[in-house]
Amino acid sequence: MEVGPGKFLLARVDDVARWAQSSSVWPLTMGLACCAIEMMSVTDPQFDIARLGSEVFRSSPRQADLMIVSGRVAQKMAPIIKRIYDQMAEPKWVISMGACASSGGVFDNYAIVQGVDTVIPVDVYVPGCPPTPDGLLHGITLIQQQIREGGRGGILARA
Amino acid sequence: MSSLSTTPLTPEIVSREGNTMVLSMGPQHPSTHGVLQLVLEIEGENVVNVDPEIGYLHTGIEKSAENLFWSQAQTVIERMDYLAPESNSLCYVLAAEKLLGIADRIPSRAQAIRVLFAELTRIASHCVWLGTHCIDLGALSVFFYTFDLRENILDLQEEAGGARMHPNYLRIGGCNGDLPEGFLAKLDALIEKFPGRMADLRGLLQANPIFQDRTIGIANLCANDAVAWNVTGPSLRASGVAYDVRRAFPYCGYESYEFDVPTRTEGDAYARFLVRLEEMEQAHRILQQVRKRLDEPGPVMIDDTKVAAPPKETIALSMEALIHHFKIVSEGFRVPPGDVYQSVESPRGELGFYLVSDGGNRPYRVRTRPPSLYNLQAIKAIARGNLIADLVVTIGSLDPVFGEVDR
Fold this sequence. Notes:
The complex is a heterodimer of chains A (159) and B (407).
Chain A: E1 2-3, E2 9-10, H1 13-22, H2 34-41, E3 66-70, H3 78-87, E4 93-97, H4 98-103, E5 124-126, H5 133-148, H6 154-158
Parallel strand pairs in A: 3-4, 4-5
Antiparallel strand pairs in A: 1-2
Chain B: E1 21-25, E2 37-43, E3 46-53, H1 61-66, H2 70-77, H3 85-100, H4 108-136, H5 141-161, E4 170-171, E5 174-175, H6 183-205, H7 209-215, H8 223-228, H9 234-237, H10 245-248, H11 269-293, H12 312-315, H13 319-331, E6 338-346, E7 349-357, E8 365-369, H14 371-377, H15 379-383, H16 388-398, H17 402-406
């Protein structure tokens, strides 16, 4: 983007689209376990996710851009997560929040899927048990960076 | 279809017998407080029958605990009820101490610290409940007030245990180290801030006509039904039964603290709201009493090298201490064979652990009595005849936590 000599602002449409997209990544309201409480904490005044433009948690997968898999994924829940992910419109991103969603965490047993990336593709992993809200905020900024630097997103994704 | 039918409803079958239809609510729903699926049989907007479908967060915690040392099992157990992790570990720790036969040798300062964290976690848990309950009702701003208060409590937990949500600070035999420097000053600040914040919350909600319209006379549960469905905690006390484990079967010296057990008789969602608010105030009262006891220094861990690792400074000087430390770290400690039941008053009700030991260094069986599970099953009795919109209030007022329901 560059500011011309007059009152014009010259930019490629794709850059503008990416800038707009990266500043309004709307997460899906999908809480699973402990991490969901920390996911709620990022909206409180101390952490204030609204600074990143992501405070609009949508309950419908059709309106959401970002799925935060917040907690352990039980065998019974895994097909539902896949289905919700399929229902989200492109372009879409996934944050695997916490040790359980990323790798099964301390629950290496019959009940827990050992990493949600065996079910859906994951863009960013946030470590911790549970991660601090700062950690989740950092994960969201990484998603924004991905969008701005030419990862998925922009007008091409809509074509 | 008759009410309270024995055949479970399934979401796959969309039946239209008569004027009713079957509708699935959840498991991904903003107002089910986790991964609960409710299969509803509705007639227009009226709920004829409800079948809760649980297990979407089944974690196998009880089984995992059998494969860990007695002290390690606490780590997974803290992740059951993630709104009140300290209540979980407290109950497990007390049960394990009973089995070990060391329950009466726990230092009094450790018991005071346990009460401190049990009450802090009660306030924090009720903060999350109130914030999310009000979001369900459309009042977003309450969330910011309650989570601000909760952040202060999480700061204290982080300071003592190193983690915000699962500090794992209470241990079998006492606590993991004394309270850090500066902790008591922060606690004082919280105790001082609390009454003002409670006044804010009461001012926002108690006489609020919209809040009253949505909660008074909704989700009624009479005392007989509550007892029959095994409901405990604030939901039971809002129906007029003054049962509180802290009073009925005191632990950690609760008999030496002054506090009231708040009850109401209406048994509706508003009564549960009032009982929980008052419980937060009673917890504050206990905090003030604990604070006075924390001025006296003393040991916070039992002086028994068979259960607790000896102090770090002795390890370099004493061969015996080094051996004890090595044994506890590498193979844990053995617990005499037997079984025990211990319950505590968690923010949701009577939380119980039934532990069986075969004399090994790992639990043979860890069985939990999760209050949320029993409270949730009463939804079948409560929700019939209400509107779908009131179902959201019903779930919120019962305050289930699915980590605990499904385990």
